[in-house]
Design a protein that fits this description.
By secondary structure, the protein is of the alpha+beta class. The chain contains 7 helices and 19 strands. 21% of the residues lie in helices and 34% in strands.
């Protein structure tokens, strides 16, 4: 089963949990995801299946869009609501303009230290494994890009006195709702944590929903329950993204039977000249994506990756199972 499926990940599951559930639902062993979501987070989790798992290499730098809330008042060890508090709870009351001014410091290309509970590796060991053992976790700052960071509203319940930074400290919490569009590798949890440090009261990510990854959005997403129902009716593939919509930065070329035969066996081929693009998606018919090909010279292309072997080889491989 070859395809790309967008799951609306529920809270409480890891990305790997979702992958395992989809494997069982579809009875497909070859399933991978295009970008981890923390258990707390919900939303767009693209999955690649079968031969199309090889497309993952083209999504490593995909930008992502999120909506969520940041709670000011105390920090946590995981930088989100699932962690243990690392500072006494206090309340901060801020205006929408003040939070927007603070958020502006985090837009553009910035230096960011990943959370200690993250998959970043320290001498080959994921940081979260060390953090769970209460070992010291020292991660180096990395350069990330926050393309948009908009504070939508602030839930500000009570005002007492004012701190030296102009932020008012009181006995109630403060929650800011936001929308962010970021480059790959950006930790929204770190943004929330760092904002709390700058105010001086601590903060953490209270909720997070990913609304887009690359060309995929919530409009393309399906729940695990919807996938289960479709699979039982033998219509699971109806939920897959149409292959022509994948990797829109590459134009599509339709190969005839002779071209398709050459591509399936890894040989160079002259393709129809539709654009001066260096990389193209090659289809056999309307739906079968058979290769991502790069231009050698003129109209001569060579497959960078072949996504469908020649039929005889496919049959032989199937007979081995």
């Amino acid at each position: 089963m070859n395809g790309v499926l967008i799951i609306d990940k529920p809270a409480g599951l890891t990305s790997h949990d979702v992958v395992n559930r989809v494997r069982r639902i579809l009875q497909e062993r070859s399933v991978g995801h295009l970008g981890t979501l923390d258990p707390l987070a919900t939303g767009v989790l693209p999955l690649v299946m079968g031969n199309l798992t090889r497309l993952a290499q083209f999504y490593t730098t995909s930008e992502k869009t999120y909506e969520g809330t940041i709670r000011f008042g105390f920090a946590t060890d995981t930088y989100d609501a699932e962690g243990e508090p690392t500072s006494p709870a206090q309340a901060v009351s801020v205006s929408l303009d003040q939070v927007r001014q603070l958020a502006s410091r985090f837009q553009g290309t910035i230096e960011q230290t990943p959370p200690p509970f993250s998959a970043k590796k320290i001498q080959g060991v994921p940081a979260y494994k060390l953090a769970r053992k209460h070992a010291e976790v020292v991660l180096k700052p990395v350069q990330v890009e926050i393309k948009e960071f908009e504070i939508l509203r602030v839930d500000d319940r009570r005002v007492d006195d004012r701190s030296s930074d102009g932020f008012r400290v009181g006995s109630a919490g403060c929650i800011a709702a936001f929308r962010a569009r970021v480059a790959s590798g950006t930790y929204i949890r770190s943004v929330a944590h760092d904002m709390g440090q700058q105010i001086g009261c601590g903060a953490h990510l209270e909720s997070l929903r990913r609304t887009a990854v690359g060309e995929f959005s919530l409009a393309d997403a399906h729940t695990l329950e919807e996938l289960t129902t479709a699979s039982k009716a033998d219509h699971a593939e109806d939920l897959f993204i149409h292959p022509r919509k994948l990797l829109p930065q590459f134009p599509s070329v339709t190969a005839n039977e002779e071209m398709t035969a050459r591509i399936r066996t890894g040989r160079p081929v002259n393709l129809p000249e539709l654009s001066p693009a260096r990389v193209v998606k090659v289809f056999a018919g309307q739906r079968e994506l058979i290769a991502i090909a790069t231009r050698v010279a003129g109209t001569l292309f060579h497959a960078k990756i072949v996504l469908a072997a020649e039929p005889a080889r496919q049959l032989a491989n199937n007979n081995k199972d």
